[in-house]
Amino acid sequence: MGEVLTTSEVLARVPQQEPFRFIDEIRELDDEHIVAGYRFREDHELYRVHFPGSPVTPGVILIETMAQAGVVALGIYIVAHSKGIAELERLTTIFTAAEVDFSGRVDPGSTVTVTGRKGFFRRGKLRSKVEMTLDDGEVGCSGTLS
Predict the structure, then answer these.
(1) In sequence order, what are the beta bridge partners of 141?
(2) Per-residue pLDDT tens for 4-42?
(3) What gap in Å lies between CA 47 and CA 56, rounded to an integer?
């Protein structure tokens, strides 16, 4: 059996780094789910170029945020727990599929909660159902990611 990583250890192993890391904290984590949070900072470079004067978070960044939490971070935890730390050293995360519905607007300064639930993990592939909610409980987007 593998090892159980703490939320801090998982976050430290997420390969994406600033300014392209969209996870500030992991609030809950086990073999079946993850709850993570991120605040889209108003001074982030992407808002300078994505609709100047009326900035909005690009949909591709919302998908990336959900993937980093619901697939990458959750996958790191599952692999370490099921196969061990050594297997993580051989792990390369590749985003392969997304089916996402956008239902809300994520503005600069928004804080989001990303909840991912494992659909399946087999042959090294993780599929998760992921939802991003804003502080007011509104769903910004949701879908299935692999």
Answers:
(1) 102, 132
(2) 999 999 999 999 999 999 999 999 999 999 999 999 999
(3) 7
| Predicted TM-score of the model (pTM) | 0.94
Give me the pLDDT at residue 128, please: 97
Active-site annotation, residues: 50
Contacts of 9 (CB under 8 A, 6+ apart): none
Q: Is 75 helix (H, G, I), strand (E, B) or coil?
A: helix
- In the chain, % helix, strand, coil (3-state, to 5) comes to 30, 30, 40
Sequence-ordered list of residues with C-beta below 8 angstroms from that of 102, at least 6 positions apart, any chain: 59, 62, 140, 141
Q: Among candidates 5, 34, 20, which has minimal Cα distance to 132?
A: 34
- Tokens standing for 116? 């991912």
Pairing between β-strand 139-145 and β-strand 98-102 as defined by DSSP bridges:
antiparallel
